[in-house]
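Exercise 7. Predict the joint structure of the components listed below.
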Amino acid sequence: MSWLVFAALFWIGALALNIWLSRSRLVKSRGGRLLVPAIFGITILVVWEAVVRGLEVPGVILPPPSAIGARIATSLPVLWVDFLQTFVKGALSGYLIGCAAAVLVAVAIDRSPFLQRGLLPVGNFVAALPIVGIAPILVMWFGFDWHSKAAVVVVMVFFPVLVNTVAGLAASEPMQRDLMATYSANYWQTLVKLRLPAAMPFIFNGLKIASTLALIGAIVAEFFGSPIRGMGFRISTEVGRLGLDMVWAEIAVAALAGSAFYGVIALIERGVTFWHPSQRT
Amino acid sequence: MKSVLPILTVVAVIVALWYAAAVWMNAQWVYDQAARADTEVTLAEVIPQTLAQERPVLPAPHQVAAELWKSVVGQKVTSKRSLIYHGWITLSATLLGFAIGTGLGILLAVGIIHNRAMDLSVMPWAIASQTIPILAIAPMIIVVMNSVGLSGLLPKAVISAYLSFFPVVVGMVKGLRSPDAMQLDLLRTYNASRGETFWKLRLPASMPYLFASLKVGVAASLVGAIVGELPTGAVAGLGARLLSGSYYGQTVQIWAALFAAAIAAAALVGIIGAIQRVTLRRMGMAR
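Solution:
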């Protein structure tokens, strides 16, 4: 009971603190902007822990954050092996292949308006489909190891990147293209010096969408069969053994990996598209 | 209408490539069978055989179409072999989850724009959560809800709701903030209250953003419902068809379920697109 009272008090206290912070002048600074969501996140963890203890929720339903943290600390090697298998081998290699292929195809069909008019609606259509469903087929074709996961990722990231790149290649203005023409630049010079740089904000938009899809694809593909390592494998087997603290540990790793992946791409974007209005502050 | 011909061309090319791939990938099996029976097969004999196998590596388009037709039209709707039966199970979870997720998402967005503390504390997490592979928690939700006695439709709907929730929150916050300062000032000169500003300016202005995120959300909901069916041990639903097909090597069944899912997704997105067109035209916002 005392845990529940503590949870309620902590919640009210943190809420009051956040309301005060959001009205104060601190919010204008960068530190204050980080502080408020951080307090919110810590509050959730504390309330979670206190409620689980107060109500004595069994660990097979919802383990407290402290148990998850302890599990992460004790099983770092397992988590690292899973991370390597799913993220580096499955998601990352598939992501690189898929995105490279999509950009190349986009440049190739860019020369033909006919192909663009035909491929874009098809690409948009496919991008909305539940592509994860091809996972069982690709697992059958490429075997249980990371190759099949990479293949799923390739298919999943291909269409969002393709559609965005084609839209980006059309983004340079006629005036700018005319300028290139007056310089007597040929097709490739125009492409490399004007149209690809102008397309970068769009391409990075696609790359960011694809970064989330890549991790989802790699994890879900492992539900259909995998060697005895990998995040999706660990999640599905530990759920079966009711080792929920391990499942939460894997989810924490997946969340960290996903955010870090996204963050890295956003950083690269800031470097590449420094000229774009959205990056100038 | 100008793009009908190019689209048809592209689709035709895809189908042709598919047939070529089917012949190429299934040929090995035919040659193996022939070698086992000590007979020689010519290429002209191989091709028809590759397109009519029981369990091909890659089924030909017409096999998938036949399987779809057989399991949609050829079965009673209540039969466990009917894709309509499985599709409806998945679709009902999708729609329930989508409704829950959208409702909660809009409510949270309204809270976020009216409360600065909520905006500052929740919004960064809502944006960050889009970079997280949320789908990974699907098996856990299913098993945990099963162990507290909830099974069937609801756990899948929870996953669907969770997946459609965040796109709606982010899109709706953007939309409710889209009226510019001049319009907000105008309402202030009318002495409009916050409620009136919300109903007469912010909500109507958010509609294009809402529909854009609804389209993303409904597609995510369907994926959530399908993945949610995987860990329940393949009982019913399109995800269960995929899983049982992959266990028993029934490739044609997998492809048929996949196409059923694709058709369902296209239909859902199409319906929302149609509602969007009608709504925006009635509101005078059609482009």
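Discussion. Chain A is about 80% helix and 0% strand.
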